[in-house]
Amino acid sequence: MIRSLRWRLQAWHAVVLTAVLMIFGVIVYHLLWQTRLNEIDAGLDRTAEVVISHLRRLSLMPQWRGWRPPMELPTGPASNEVADPTEDGNRSISLDATPSAEPEFRPWPIPVLGLPAEQVPQPSGVRLLPEEFSPLFKGEDSSWYFVIWARDGHVLEKSEIAPEVEFENHFVESSWLPVRIARTRWGKREVVHVANFGTHVLVGRSIELEVATQHASGWILAACGWAILALGVIGGGWLSGRTIRPIATMSNIAKNISAENLSQRIDVQETDSELGQLAHVLNQTFDRLESAFEQQARFTADASHELRTPLSVIMSQIELALSKPRSNAEYLAALETCQRASRRMRQLIDSLLLLARFDSGQPDLNCGPLDLSEVATESVELLRPLADEKQIKLGSDMTPVPFVGDRERLGQVMMNLLSNAIRYNQDGGRVDVRVERINGDAVVSVSDTGIGIPASDLPHIFERFFRVDRTRSRADGGSGLGLAICQSVVEAHGGQITARSEPQCGTTLEVRLPIAAESETLSQNS
Amino acid sequence: MRVLVVEDEPDLLRVVAATLREDGYAVDTAADGEDALYKATAWEYDAILLDVMLPKLDGWSVLRRMREVKRTPVLMLTARDTVGDRVRGLDAGADDYVVKPFSLTELKARLRALIRRSAGQAVAVIEIGDVQIDTVGKLVKRGDAIVPLTATEYSLVELLALHRQKLVTRTTIYDHLFDEQDDSLSNLVDVHVSNIRKKLGRDFITTRRGLGYVIEG
User: Fold this and answer.
1) Which of A144, A338, A487, A507 could lock A501 by a disulfide, CB 3.0 to 4.6 Å apart?
2) Does A340 map to a domain?
3) pLDDT value of residue B6
4) Which CATH number is correct for B2-118, 3.10.180.10, 2.40.30.170, 3.90.1150.10, 3.40.50.2300?
5) 3-state secondary structure of A318
6) Could you list the residue range(s) of the whole structural domain that residue A345 is in?
7) Of A278, A235, A271, nearest to A253 (Cα)?
8) pLDDT per residue as tens digits for the range A469-516
């Protein structure tokens, strides 16, 4: 069950589908998160940019021109106060507000927020952040915050809920390209923009909501994935079941086909699919099997009929002869009948054994060098009395053809062909025997001017016990095995036998035997 | 009793025909299917022995075509002995089936049974008054004494007894008692009837003038 094609198909299908879904899910999840982050970042960037441009504007205010911030930041307790901005609302970065005249110090571009108002030359209404932002950063449930650092890292301004953020200097002296850093930490998204003269503006917001939404999306994605996987597996199972079903049907039919029931065939509906082709091939195999079985069954029936008939003659004749006292003449006649019948049986058994030996691939050939024309001439002379009886003219056209083969068996082939040609000829007809060499093959042909063989029977004449007309052969004592034996002998010599026939004109049987190189040398030596 | 033997093996045909003739049957022979069909439809036989494998027309076809016009009992003779072949033969209208090689004794017994059954007689011994006709031993007894009858006389008695109380015409008697080889002198039915009356009594066979004969008992 586990190893069945269907289950393996199903398992692989599920594995591949799971992998695809997982990769797809991860990508979608990631893209979704990226999109969310981009949206968040865009908001943060916009805010930061507004802040920066505001700062820039502030720095250009006339009241700030010429103002120099103190050269050094206060140390000691003042620094501590910087590190503890929660102490009170009063950001007590105590700067010496006295403008210094030291020229090497770079102009402080931004008003120093957080200084006591009286220390800063402050025009009324000047603030670091535009007024519109205050609801964003100061609202009760606002998740937005900002921090503005000076280039040296001290906090210029920060919103109330801003978390403790370590200053990281991103200002690169040599580069005037705007710097932007985005980062996520502790459930918060922050962007840091570095503005003119190294002022760092950090705008951040809590993204807990987005994270929660993303998680929810993740769960939805996972659920969808499971649903698709389930659908896919069920669908795949259905599909593989559909695909496998014809195979199951085929195997059932193949299982049902036995010696008793060979006529069943697979119903081929999809002729173009691979399974249809398989079914077609199987059906062809079954056809061949059926015809082979039929041939075998017919052969067995024929053989048993042919053997039982003379046996019946013997048994019946003996029973009749013994049933009461008979005259000597009657006994003699009875014994003659039995002799005839037993001779026929012996002949038939010899033929069957010969065929069986050829069938088993051990033809038991006694090969030696010979001249086919000599063998043919012998057969012609042996059968001449039979031909004379029917006033049949026996013509021969022989060329000496050396060959290596079984003289007795090849002689039997010639005798069979010749006696057929004479037997199925009209009185006063002709039989021509030719032995020649064509393209390295020895060719023996026997033509008659007989009644011919109907085209429908021609393919069957080499089958065992096949008779074109059974009346004639039974009267002549033929067994129906002659041509089958000829074919076996010729094929055992590596040759082939073919028949051509024109009804009412005559039949030609042609034996083509390949002359091997060794046979030529052998025959030359002999 | 007249039977037709159809067999394409000449020796077997001769032996079977000789056996049946020795047993008192009138025997016609046929060596191929066409001849067999012609004879089977042209004459009244008490039974036909039919080989299956025949030249020209096989046994099945002969049987099928003969059954269209005749109900003559048929005993198939064949070398095919599978159950399928037997069933096919019986279904095709054959009455019995004998597989080659067969014993002549069995063949004769089956032939007798076949003829008896087709005449509506189930038992082998027919009793008419004090006359007993033993169809197996081909004997006629009166009381305990065996009545000596010639083969033809016995056949005539058996034929009339098998169809007792039914009129048997002279033509039927002729058809059933004499085969195609009989000469004209041996087939004088009146002479045989007269001889039987001498041996079995005047009233054993009743003459229906101008029609035929009947055993009334």
Assistant:
1) A507
2) yes
3) 93
4) 3.40.50.2300
5) helix
6) 274-359
7) A278
8) 655 445 555 677 888 889 989 988 889 999 988 888 888 999 999 887
Boundary-marking domain end, from A359, A394, A415 = A359
Residues A289 and A407 in one domain: no
Q: Do B16 and A316 touch (CB under 8 A)?
A: yes
Alpha carbons A54 and A56: distance in angstroms, whole number: 5
Cα gap B176→B168, rounded to integer Å:
11
User: Cβ separation of B15 and A310 shorter than 8 Å?
Assistant: no
Indicate the class that CATH gives domain B125-214: mainly alpha
Tokens of A469: 């007309």
Find, in chain A, the residue whose alpha carbon is nearest to that of B58: A470
CB contact under 8 A, B55 and A469: yes
Q: Hey, what are A373's tokens?
A: 């024309």
Q: Are residues A136 and A73 in the same domain?
A: yes
The CATH number of residue A482's host domain is: 3.30.565.10
**Largest CA-CA distance found in chain A, in angstroms, rounded:** 171
Q: Are residues A185 and A288 in the same domain?
A: no
The residues that bridge with A205 in the sheet, in sequence order, are A144, A189
**Quick one: A407 and A340 in the same domain?**
no
Q: In whole angstroms, what is the distance from residue B146 CA to residue B149 CA?
A: 9
Q: How far is A321 from chain B (nearest CA, A)?
A: 9
Strand partners, A513: A442
**pLDDT tens track for A10-20:** 888 889 999 99
Per domain, the residue ranges of chain B are 2-118, 125-214
A250: in domain: no
Percent of chain A with pLDDT over 70: 77
Q: Which of A215, A235, A252 is the last residue of a domain?
A: A215
Look up the ipTM and state it: 0.75
Which of A260, A296, A315, A316 to mutate to probe the B interface, most B CBs <10 Å? A316
Mind listing the pLDDT tens digit for each residue in A349-393?
Answer: 988 888 888 888 777 788 888 888 999 999 999 888 888 888 888
Residue B201 token pair: 């009594």
Please name the residue of chain B whose CA is at the shortest distance from the CA of residue A340: B11
On the question of pLDDT at A466 being above 70, the answer is yes
Residue with tokens 């597989």: B99
Tokens in use for A269?
Answer: 């509906």
Which alpha helices (DSSP H) does chain B contain, by range? 10-22, 33-42, 59-67, 83-91, 104-118, 151-162, 170-177, 189-200
Q: Which residue bears the tokens 């908001």?
A: A43
Higher pLDDT, A158 or A495: A495
Run of H or E residues at A386: helix A372-389
Q: What is the pLDDT of residue A414?
A: 92
% residues pLDDT > 90 (chain B) = 18
Question: How large is the angle between the packed helices B10-22 and A274-322, nearest 10 degrees?
Answer: 50
More confident residue, A131 or A444: A444
What's the pLDDT score for residue A271? 63
- Kindly tell me if the per-residue pLDDT of A173 is higher than 70: no
